[in-house]
UniProtKB/TrEMBL annotation:
The active site is at H148. The record marks D149 as: Increases basicity of active site His. Residues 15-93 form the PglD N-terminal domain. Acetyl-CoA binds at H157. It comes from Paenibacillus thiaminolyticus. It comes from the Bacteria. Substrate binds at G81. This is Acetyltransferase.
Length: 220
């Protein structure tokens, strides 16, 4: 296992944070701890959670002042059950040649055999075990645990304190709520939402919501 002490070692470009809310504030703390050069943040206005901590440089259009070779982006948009804005921003800027930096807290524990996609964010206390594969633009939030050989699709969010057991397959744009548990060998389809504190014992097809102990499907 590896305690990460650096972020995305392959790139030393300065970064711009997209968004100024609470999730962006968490990422700013990690970036500062890892001594990353931050140009500023973008948002629709300068009144977000970062307004007193980091330079506001304008809305997202200001990014086009920088060539993709000059800057990396950090996706500061969080999500609660809806990954559409976060995903749209990621796909918009990657299609134009910009790259999204991985943000990994020094206190995250990640196996050397785990594979993390572009722009993945791993917050303090998270554990990612051997053989795990995580797609692009995924959030592994505070104290989440991802066990061996699990696959997590792009644009998904594993919320604080969630436990994903071994050999689980999670699709793209899935939201796993805080403190939820998914038992071993379960498949969760694309765009599913699992409620906070739920216990998932059965496979779920795409585009479903499930809540409770044990988790049961509800209307989405």
């Amino acid at each position: 296992m590896t305690f990460y002490s650096e972020i995305d070692k392959s790139s030393k470009k300065p970064v711009i944070i997209l968004g100024g809310g609470g999730h962006a504030k968490v990422l700013l703390d990690i970036l500062n701890e890892c001594k990353v050069n931050i140009i500023g943040y973008t948002d629709i206005n300068a009144s977000g959670a970062l307004s007193e901590e980091l330079k506001y440089i304008g809305d997202d259009e200001v990014i086009f002042r920088y060539h993709p070779a000059e800057v990396s982006l950090v996706n500061g948009i969080g999500l609660v059950g809806d990954s559409s804005l976060r995903r749209r921003l990621y796909e918009k800027f990657t299609s134009l040649g910009y790259d999204f930096k991985q943000v990994i807290h020094p206190a995250a524990v990640i196996s050397a055999t785990a594979s993390l996609g572009a722009g993945v964010q791993v917050v303090a206390g998270s554990v990612i075990q051997p053989g795990v594969t995580i797609g692009d633009n995924v959030i592994i939030n505070t104290r989440a645990s991802i066990d061996h050989d699990t696959i997590i699709g792009s644009h998904s969010h594993i919320s604080p304190g969630a436990t994903i057991c071994g050999s689980v397959i999670i699709g793209c744009s899935v939201f796993i709520g805080a403190g939820a548990t998914v038992v071993q060998n379960i498949h969760i389809g694309d765009s599913c939402v699992i409620g906070a504190g739920s216990l998932v014992l059965h496979t779920l097809p795409s585009n479903k919501k499930a809540y409770g102990v044990p988790a049961k499907e509800v209307s989405k």
